[in-house]
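pasting for the record
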Amino acid sequence: MKQYKSDHIQNIAILGHLNSGKTSLTEAMLFEAKAISKKGSVDKKNTVSDYLLEEQTRQTSLISSLLPLEWKDYKINFLDTPGSEEFIGDLENVLSVVEGAILLVDASSGVEVGTEACWSELRKRNIPTLIILTKMDKENVKFEDVLAEIKGQLSDNAIPFSLPLGKSANFDGYINVITKKARIFKDGKYHDDVAYDDKKDRVEELYEQLLEKVAESSEELLEKYFSGEELTPDDVRKGLLSGTKKGDVFPVGVISVENNVGISTLLDMVVKYLPSAGGREYQAFDQDGKEIVRKSLESEPFSAQIFKTTVDPFAGTISFMKVKSGVLKENSEVKVANLNEDIKISNIFSMRGNVQISVSEAPAGDIVCVAKVDELRNSMTLCDKRVFTKYPAVEHPTPILYMAIQPKNRQDEDKLSSSLNKLKLEDETFETVRNPETAQLLIGGQGTTHIGYILERMKNTYKVEVDTHDQKVVYRETIRAKGEAQGRHKKQSGGAGQFGDVFIRFEPTEEEFVFAEEIFGGAVPKNYFPAVEKGLRETFEKGPLAGFPVVGVKCTLYDGSYHPVDSNEISFRLAANLAWRNAVPNLRPTILEPIYRVDVTVKDDYVGDIMGDITKRRGRVLGLEQKEGFQVIMAEVPEAEITKYAIDLKAMTQGSGRFARTFLRYEAVPENLIDGIVKEYKAQ
């Protein structure tokens, strides 16, 4: 692969609903560009991008893949993304480094839940986008109906650049709305023809819509258009590029991967109507934390950001980076801004799926990889040693579904820990939590598909099999009444004995734990106060009802006695324990449960059902907020009611709903539920 300048490099994300044809399209484009000699297929499990065993088994993309190709003096780095919204972390990383996107719509299914989710992510970042209808060869495809869906559910600025020809399996070409010529495909080749008579009126109508959008892209073109002066093909191209960049125009094209129709035209559209990497500006920070701007130019100081990490059992850690400014060369010494450490980059390379491609240098705008640099993590910045640059990290959602795991073979404990650490390197939306209170090792992710993929990777790549269990809710215990009691510990067994005697008052408090003393006259010497406090803290590790930690108690030591010979620290620790046990019957102990703030994002159609469901889950709806075409329901809900909410919400909203959760506080469990919780945890 030859060297390219920044203004001839493009980074393009490919998105779409599950099974919309992303991977098949990448195969077709790689083949069309002669980057591969033969097209693979998802069914045959031999595609370039879906190289993981888990992807081949499920026949769907589960991680993003870098797929560079060369087309008409451009290097295009395509990034094929997973179709499931549960792999949002990977998608967010990819969208942080691209200049444009291709959103696929399955013409036989129309706009689906995943299509809208991808569209939302693209519009959040205002990424120039081509909308491409795939599977035009399928039965019962109605182009005008799908176009109406796109305009109604995505954007009215979606403008067809192609009008399809042929019906269902006979789809064999299209009319180019700009040139008004038909392009017919047969046996992998195409020829241009005149537009069919029965399509001419519709083509003229679409052409006028397109000219209006072109004219709106600049004052000069608008004046030219309204004065009746004809716009030249160059005017149209420049106007469309400008409109696409601004998000005022979303070109719509049609393809059939099966029949190889429209693939070369799509590659032409990418080059013509999506921006290159050259000249793009990035917000960054200098060493003092002041905002600076880096431009995607070779003449700027070098800077790059890691956006993806893979851990290969043979190649080790591979870090993918976008060079944002300057040039990265082999054997360069650079600074890791996040660590303020210098490292040497010996070899750089590109990847096509899981195949390495040698690269000697990478200019601003390009995407390259380095291997076995253990210091690197996603979102880290590499920069010139003399010119400090640091880019803000990509923020990701926290896990919404947790599952407890334990190795089937106890000897795999170390392998389990190692595999989880490597998987965490690859995916920031996945986390592990060791909960000492429930003795559970939890893995958290974005849903059942996400967690299922993690478990499969552990088994297939790292040879660790685990048993899974539901997550246990971490409760607390507290008191609702004030009370006091004596704790007297006395033990004689020949020789020195043990003696400790305390009177302690217990009362509820907003703080987690408070220890105070009101001792007068030395009834208990000061040097035993810490022993009393320590005894209480140890006692509170397991509460009287179900053994949960005790919180929200103020303990005041107000009287007691000691023995000059037999008293010691252990005696007063045990005495404090006895005082608590004696006082408990009068303190009205109860159980506290964790309360979470949940923000549930749904379509208008589901608001009523979701609010009703939240109420059934003992939740409190705090309010509603309109955001990016969706309603966000803000509520507070007990954790016990939402441990599997990710699954339930998907079912209630036909896969379109999503939520985020944040721990808020502990609250008392309703009286009628306490016995059930106590019984369950005592049984465990």
